[in-house]
Amino acid sequence: MTIAAELLRLAAIESLAPFTAIGTGEGFPTLAKGRVYDSRRPPIDDMDRDRDFTPVLSLFTRKSESARRGSGQGSVSRNGRALLEVVAELAIAASDPEPGGQPGEFVDALASDDPQAKLTLATLCAQVRHVFTEGPTGAIFRKACIAIDGLEEEGFAVPELGLRWHRTTMLFDCQIPDDSFQANGGLPQPAASIAAMLPPGSYAAAILTRLAGQFDAADPLPMIEAIAFETKQKGVSGQAGAADLVGPPFADVED
């Protein structure tokens, strides 16, 4: 995965669960509130036992690309792309008997034909889309994403058995900048500049701060002491510059 693709997911997490909202408990832009998880399933302890279900969001980077901008470009000039996966679901604490008869709990999506629950899940998905495209808390996401080229939503069901769960996978096909590495070390751009915009102490800022320490500064390039090159004026070849200082020296130029 490119660093820009990882940055996209972290910016999405900050947009869906802003650091200020976590601190105050107010101002969350979706029904999931602070239950937004980075590359993992929601834990069983986060389930609200007083409700029929708990809206949650889990974010993953499914893939990233770094394609050359064109046949006339070198290896450095590239366009980035990432497929951001957002799993929205109405989660419950399900149980399954373990060997010995003791029930073991795990998180699963609600499986029912409740139309109100279906509308709640649709609302959660719509809120995610609004945050990324227009919502005020999604400004940091739009810094990391050039454009969302496409959005697909996949349900979770086994129609042959009449089973349908209240879980939707949203796939955001995003244009993103490619990584631009810095000679002085630290995060490549645009991750470095966007990391500076994140609230200090936020989850995304902490992750990027640790990541920045993995990029050492490059060795300084040697100074150019002399330049020499061949010339040809009016059909007569020659040399310009101190050719004897260049190693190995240029051979004498003859017509």
Written overview of the protein:
The chain has 255 residues and is α+β, with helices and mostly antiparallel strands. The chain folds into 2 domains: 202 residues, Phage minor tail protein U (Alpha-Beta Plaits, 2-Layer Sandwich); 31 residues, no CATH class. It has 6 helices and 8 strands. The strands form 2 sheets. Strands 1, 2, 3, 4, 5 and 6 form a 6-stranded mixed β-sheet that branches. A two-stranded antiparallel ribbon has the order 7-8. The model has no long low-confidence stretch (mean pLDDT 86).
Task: Provide key terms for this protein.
two-stranded antiparallel sheet, Alpha-Beta Plaits, elongated, 255 residues, alpha+beta, 6-stranded mixed β-sheet
How far the N terminus sits from the C terminus, by CA atoms, comes to 53 Å
Helix content: 10-25%
- Any idea what the radius of gyration is? 27 Å
Tally of helical runs? 6
Helix/strand order, N-terminal first: HHEEEEHHEEHHEE
Contiguous runs where pLDDT drops below 50 for at least 5 residues: none
- The count of strands amounts to 8
Q: What overall geometry do the principal axes of the alpha carbons give?
A: elongated
CATH homologous superfamily (4th level) name of the largest domain: Phage minor tail protein U
Structural class: alpha+beta
- Could you tell me the strand content as a percent range? 25-35%
CATH topology of the largest domain: Alpha-Beta Plaits
Specify the CATH architecture of the largest domain: 2-Layer Sandwich
Summarize model confidence as the mean pLDDT: 86
Q: What is the highest CATH level, the class of the largest domain?
A: Alpha Beta
Largest sheet descriptor: 6 strands, mixed
Q: Indicate how many domains the architecture comprises.
A: 2
